[in-house]
Specification:
Layout (H helix, E strand, L loop, with lengths): L1 E5 L4 E8 L4 E9 L4 E8 L10 E3 L20 E2 L6 H4 L36 E5 L5 E5 L22 E10 L6 E7 L3 E8 L8 E11 L11 E8 L7 E9 L2 E5 L6 E6 L4 E5 L4 E5 L4 E5 L3 H31 L2 H11 L3 H27 L11 H9 L19 H4 L3 H46 L1 H4 L10 H20 L12 E3 L32 H6 L8 H4 L29 H6 L16 E5 H6 L6 H8 L3 H14 L11 E3 L6 E6 L4 E9 L4 E8 L3 E7 L2 E4 L4 E4 L4 E5 L5 E5 L2 E5 L7 E12 L5 E6 L11 E7 L5 E8 L3 E7 L2 E7 L15 H4 L21 H7 L3 H24 L9 E5 L9 E5 L3 H7 L17 H4 L27 H24 L6 H14 L3 E2 L12 E4 L2 E3 L13 E10 L2 E10 L5 H19 L8 H14 L2 E2 L5 E3 L6 E5 L15 E4 L2 E3 L5 E3 L6 E3 L5 E3 L2 E5 L4 E3 L3
Parallel strand pairs: 2-5, 21-22
Antiparallel strand pairs: 1-12, 2-11, 3-10, 3-12, 4-9, 4-11, 6-13, 7-8, 13-14, 13-19, 14-15, 15-16, 17-18, 17-20, 18-19, 23-24, 24-25, 25-26, 26-29, 27-28, 28-31, 29-30, 30-32, 31-32, 32-33, 33-34, 34-35, 35-36, 36-37, 38-39, 40-43, 41-43, 42-51, 43-44, 45-49, 46-47, 48-53, 49-52, 50-51, 53-54
Helix pairs in contact: 2-9, 3-7, 4-7, 14-15, 17-18, 21-22, 23-24
């Protein structure tokens, strides 16, 4: 099979030489998207003209068959051997064009087709006469009629030796492979002509296959082919799965949207790594260029696909291994080639030594240059004690995972050395560097010549092996390119084995890998595996976990609760922070007419106008301030420079770099923060930490502060205003940026120009920055002014800026120029520029993700363990922004209105009480450098990082009092089966009848119930004073995931956690939080798991430490009521008897029963009928065999009236009395009830 590009107005000819008569020429071809014309010609002469575009020796059909074990048949995929009548008439003397509407996975690749081809004729049976009177028949098909305008041959060949067999006609080759065959009665060359001359501008991607078959031989169709429906995971995140038709032909897996549709993608199994997971019926195929995640619809389908892939992997790997082995041992010259590749490292070692020597030389030069600069005579060299003290006073980040950065100090004695001695040492070092450079270049030249020689030998070897590759060993599935890849991979493997004989893998034991080139199985740990003991190449049938073996014995063994959860260990504070590189969802929300909104607010400050959430990008203004530090390394470099003008130049580059990201961000605006909202960003990889807070609601003012281990700090208050001017919107930054270099004492201020959003009325919106960017070093009085030039539609260049760096007296010393979207350069000499800064390359598809850079993408992420350190006011906890980031636009819009309304109510309440809003982390101080009319600016007053360290945030303002629905994709691995509500939080509608469950459902609920029981036992073992309910939730969540189950409460109607924890006076639905359990508390832990499509629900109340007698009795008698209620359950008993029984026990002991909550049916759905009331009631309905439901009484010490918290979940007793609850899921049997969670 070959693939080529046929240019427009061109013809591609493929010649096949037939050396013996009575051979059948078979072919198939297809194109992508656009169709192509095809014809067949004959040349008596055995020689081919020199201008041929393609001339190959067609492989024999016998070399194409691949043996394969039989596999089972199922209705979800096709394994029928289907051929057209023409194909069945294989022995006829006529050429045949075959077509079969039934997709066949077992037939050979020339005997069936999804599309038929047809020559145009007015008769049903058209005969073309050949030179010798031989005829070829074409069977007409109505499914793919060539167009009338191409009824005649498109191309006329002037070559008199060419005889037309099939006239060139237009075929629907984009719809599927077009297949045909012709019986060659004469020796000579046969020409397959692919005509694209009718296309003026469009080239065609042509895939074709040609082979010769002995007419007398019986063709054995490869039995190892398979086709059927599979679920394929879409490429983009959160797009879900799509049902696609897959087929395997000759070791090539391809997929189609439907059985008769065009091929949408294909991979060679022999060159791919295959991973399977039997527990989830999933197959993962990685070809190196693309990755397919597939899921079988049934277990039978999975077994069939697994078997067929195993057969192909085994047979093809053997073929590749034999071919590569032959190529390796063919000639001694090639052995020398391989040895030259993996051996002979002495030259490379010498080169490495040279480079190390040169590095040492450069360091020596740096030290000598430093020694030339004599220190200021007025400064006293620091003593050893002073130097140690100054080092201790520098900012350190051990708790943020920041390793200590090495620092060097110049010794005063070195600085006082004479310049003559320094010059002589410099000259000596330069001479040594020159010598090392000459030696290194000589080694490199030698290596280049050696590699060029190897390349020539390798190409010659491939040319000599060309004929053998096309025979039986190649199986016709490995093209020349595939063989090259196989050989190179083999060589790499040999090279790797010389370097290292061990490796490790972090893949779980339930995954199995088939590696295309290694006779080895990659499982959980192969660091000490003996690969020679593996019998089946590239495949492991026992790769799944041991639960499959246990299941085969018919015994279900309950896992130990202590083994359900991973061991909880304190998080290593020095662990590197792993940041995301992609947002959870692409651009979300419909385009809204900004013009209609702006017309109503002409001349107003738009920061005070409520906007729809779709106008936003999922980032906050507080986070936008942090974006200024994306290129903080410019400040790091500036600090180290000895010349003040050099430092000013790099500060200017830093000021310009903050605009780079705005070139992709014109369409949307950041979220406006709430009053008191904060944002922190700790960046160990760049060496700084950042804190920002909204300090004023009106006028809106945001303040921020950053400090770095590289001896600089930055502070800023943003007082930007926005106004609409009819066709453009102006953003006017009134704040001042202050930068301090602690080492040099420099104090810089930066004042920014205005930003304009253009083309609001019509056209493509874009951002433009115009005006002067002013930077002043108040220590040296040096300054820099950069003028941002205005862009226009007709301007030849955009985003340009230029300016100068000036001394204290205004003399221009440095010239700068560039583009704020690309780079900034300094003119170091006439017509010579030195680049100071360059914009980073944006991530792939950045335009689909709001134009965010990787740095911006990470700002709103809650990394591992960060949620425990942040205050509740942090932007990452803001519900509307979090929802919008995940593409939940409607929910985000509702939350935005709710959050903003709560802010208004909070301010109104404070005004009513005469209270002033207290800014937590910043204070207003006099600032002579600011342009503020009051002469004041907001500065960081300290305390934030100390509070973060202790976790004591004091009294925090509740800004949102809402619940952010969890990010399920982040919390739950994709292989775990999820309920229908997992992503959107919306459960399905209840059925109108009480379900009577089948044995299959009962068994599924029993397994889920037993797992829920084990998780509950684990939860009870965690209960102790001092632990937080968040920690309990985390451990239990991990335990549920470890058992391949989904925590049912997670995102059920937006519930944010995996379990419910109701402490003391909480009746039900308590959300785990940071509150620590105290001695004397009681806590109910409610567990529901979703395992293999079924829910299991149970709960219990546990004692925390020393609980008083009243608390213990409340817990004991609640459990007693559950036991008594279960005891009366059997077929024929009224459902209301459960409530009557529980009510009697509550009355007996003087407790009240909550009537707000009830038991419920459960099974495939989390909640369904019947409803089980726990108080005295007269509801109708009788228990029947096969019913499954929960009983979960809640006793309260005082009143059972509940008060719901603003989180819309937590319900507490109105009088503060304690509440206890117990729950079981039960099954009504023939004569009683079975506790499925007991």
């Amino acid at each position: 099979m070959q693939e080529i590009e046929v240019p427009p107005r061109d013809v591609f000819q493929h010649y096949v030489h037939v050396d013996q008569p009575n051979k059948a020429l078979v072919w198939w071809f297809s194109t992508k998207r656009k169709n192509i014309s095809f014809g067949l010609f004959f040349r008596k002469s055995s020689s081919c003209p020199p201008q041929l575009k393609s001339n190959t020796q067609a492989p024999s059909i016998a070399s194409l068959a691949i043996p394969s074990p039989p596999v089972r048949t199922d209705s979800s995929y096709s394994r029928s051997f289907s051929q057209s009548p023409q194909a069945q008439a294989h022995g006829s003397p006529y050429g045949v064009l075959s077509s079969s509407p039934t997709k066949s996975s077992k037939a050979s690749n020339y005997a069936s087709s999804r599309a038929s081809i047809d020559t145009l004729s007015d008769d049903d049976d058209h005969v073309s006469e050949l030179a010798d009177g031989q005829s070829i028949h074409h069977n007409q098909s109505s499914s793919t009629q060539p167009s009338a305008r191409r009824k005649k041959t498109v191309v006329k060949f002037k070559d008199p030796d060419l005889i037309e067999i099939l006239p060139i006609q237009h075929y629907n080759s984009a719809a599927g492979p077009v297949r045909g065959e012709y019986l060659a009665k004469e020796e000579g060359s046969y020409v397959l002509v692919f005509d694209n001359t009718f296309s003026i501008n469009t080239s065609k991607r042509l895939t074709y296959f040609v082979a010769l078959e002995e007419r007398g031989q019986k063709v054995t169709a490869p039995a190892a082919e398979l086709s059927g429906w599979l679920l394929k995971k879409k490429r983009k995140k959160m797009q879900g799965w799509a049902k696609r038709w897959f087929q395997i032909e000759n070791g090539v897996l391809s997929y189609h949207k439907d059985p008769n549709g065009p091929c949408r993608g294909k991979v060679h199994l022999v060159l791919s790594t295959v991973t399977v997971s039997q527990s989830s019926n999933m197959i993962h195929i990685d070809s190196g260029t693309m990755l397919y995640h597939l899921k079988a619809l049934t277990a039978e389908d999975y077994e069939a696909w697994e078997t067929i892939i195993k057969a192909f992997k085994a047979s093809e790997q053997r073929a590749v291994h034999d071919t590569v082995h032959r190529l390796t041992l063919r000639e001694s010259s090639h052995k020398h080639l391989r040895n030259s590749w993996i051996g002979g490292t002495s030259e490379l070692d010498q080169l490495k030594e040279m480079m190390s020597s040169m590095d040492a030389g450069f360091l020596d030069i740096k030290e000598q240059l430093d020694s030339i600069r004599a220190p200021d005579s007025s400064q006293k060299p620091p003593s050893g004690r002073d130097r140690q003290a100054s080092t201790d006073n520098k900012i350190k980040f051990p708790k943020f995972g920041m390793p200590a950065l090495p620092r060097t100090t110049s010794d005063a004695s070195v600085a006082s050395a004479g310049s003559t001695d320094a010059q002589s040492r410099l000259q000596s070092t330069f001479d040594k560097l020159k010598s090392d450079k000459d030696k290194a270049f000589a080694i490199l030249r030698s290596e280049i010549e050696k590699w060029e020689k190897n390349d020539r030998q390798y190409k010659q070897l491939l040319a000599e092996s060309d004929m053998s590759v096309s025979r039986a060993e190649s199986k016709a599935t490995l093209s020349r390119h595939a063989l090259e890849e196989a050989y190179i991979a083999h060589t790499r493997t040999s090279m790797a084995s010389d370097r290292s004989n061990s490796f490790t893998s972090s893949i779980t034991g339930s995954d199995v890998f088939y590696d295309a080139m290694d006779d080895a199985v990659l499982t959980a740990d192969l660091s000490s595996a003996d690969l020679s003991d593996l019998e089946d190449p590239g495949f492991d049938t026992n790769g799944d976990n041991s639960s499959d073996d246990e299941a085969s014995t018919g015994k279900e063994e309950a896992p130990d609760p202590e083994k359900c959860a991973p061991e909880a260990t304190p998080q290593d504070l020095d662990e590197p922070i792993v940041r995301r590189t992609l947002l959870p969802a692409p651009v979300s929300g419909e385009d809204i007419s900004l013009l209609s909104i702006l017309r109503k607010n002409v001349g107003k400050d738009l920061s005070t106008v409520a906007m729809p959430v779709s106008l936003n990008e999922p980032i906050n203004v507080l986070q936008r301030l942090c974006e200024e530090l994306e290129y903080s390394e410019l400040l790091d470099k500036a600090v180290t420079l000895p010349d003040s003008l050099d430092r000013l130049v790099y500060v200017a580059a830093f000021a310009v770099s903050g605009y780079a990201t705005t070139q992709w961000r014109a369409a949307r605006k950041p979220f406006n923060p709430l009053h008191g909202e904060t944002f922190e960003y700790v960046c160990p990889e760049k060496g700084f930490k950042f804190i920002s807070e909204k300090v004023s609601h009106y006028p809106p003012v945001m303040a921020c502060h950053a400090e770095s281990v590289h001896d600089w700090n930055l502070s800023m208050d943003s007082r930007a205003k926005t106004k609409f001017w009819g066709k453009s919107m102006e953003l006017m930054p009134n704040g001042t940026i202050h930068i301090h270099f602690t080492k040099t004492g420099d104090h810089y201020t930066i004042v920014k120009p205005s930003t304009w959003m253009r083309n609001l009325m019509a056209g493509t919106k874009y951002l433009d920055h115009t005006g002067d960017l002013k930077i002043v070093n108040h220590t040296t009085r040096e300054s820099c002014v950069l003028t941002f030039k205005e862009s226009s539609f007709f301007a030849g260049t955009k985003h340009e800026l230029a300016g100068h760096v000036m001394t204290a007296n205004g003399t221009k010393k440095r010239a700068l120029q560039g583009r704020w979207s690309e780079s900034l350069m300094e003119e170091v000499a006439p017509n010579k520029l030195e680049r100071l800064w360059k914009c980073n390359t944006p991530p792939p598809n950045h335009e689909k993700y709001y134009g965010f850079t990787e740095f911006t993408t990470s700002l709103n992420e809650i990394t591992k363990g960060l949620d425990k350190k942040l205050p509740k006011t942090d932007t990452r906890f803001r519900p509307d922004q979090s929802l919008f980031e995940r593409g939940m636009v409607e929910e985000a819009d509702k939350e935005k209105l709710r959050v903003e309304q709560r802010q208004r109510e909070l301010r109104k309440a404070m005004e009513g009480r005469g209270e002033q809003w207290q800014v937590r982390w910043f204070e207003k101080l006099a600032d002579p450098q600011t342009e503020d009319p009051e002469g004041q600016t907001w500065r960081y007053k300290g305390g934030y990082w100390e509070a973060r360290e202790t976790g004591n945030w004091g009294k925090e303002v509740e800004l949102w009092l809402g619940v952010i629905p969890p990010d399920v994709d982040h919390l739950v691995p994709p292989h775990i089966r999820r309920p229908s509500y997992a992503l959107r939080g919306e459960p399905s509608e209840w059925a109108s009848k009480i379900p009577i469950n089948t044995p299959e459902t009962i068994e599924g609920c029993r397994k889920a119930g037993q797992l829920a029981k084990q998780i509950l036992t684990l939860g009870g073992s965690l209960v102790k004073p001092g632990i937080t309910t968040t920690e309990i939730d985390r451990i239990l969540h991990e335990a549920i995931i470890a058992n391949n189950a989904y925590p049912s409460p997670l995102n059920y109607m937006g519930f944010p956690k995996s379990v419910c924890t109701s402490v003391s006076n909480v009746i039900a639905h308590g959300i785990p939080d940071s509150r620590q359990l105290e001695d004397g508390d009681i806590i109910n832990i409610d567990i529901t798991v979703y395992l293999d499509g079924y829910h299991g629900d149970t709960s219990a109340t546990f004692l925390v430490g020393n609980v008083d007698k009243a608390g213990k009795e409340l817990v004991e008698r609640t459990q007693e009521s559950l036991d008594e209620a279960i005891a009366i359950c059997k077929p024929g008993v009224p459902l209301n008897q459960i409530g009557k029984t529980i009510q009697k026990i509550a009355d007996r002991y003087g407790y009240s029963v909550s009537e707000q909550f009830s038991g419920h049916g459960i099974g495939k759905e989390f909640h369904c009928l019947p409803l089980i009331y726990h108080h005295d009631n007269d509801e109708e309905g009788l228990m029947e065999k096969g019913m499954i439901f929960t009983i979960e009484p809640m006793f309260c010490q005082g009143t059972a009236i509940g008060v719901q918290w603003p989180d819309k979940w937590t319900v507490t007793t109105a009088d503060g009395g304690r509440s206890a609850q117990f729950e079981h899921t039960i099954l009504i049997t023939d004569d009683g009830a079975e506790r499925l969670t007991g």
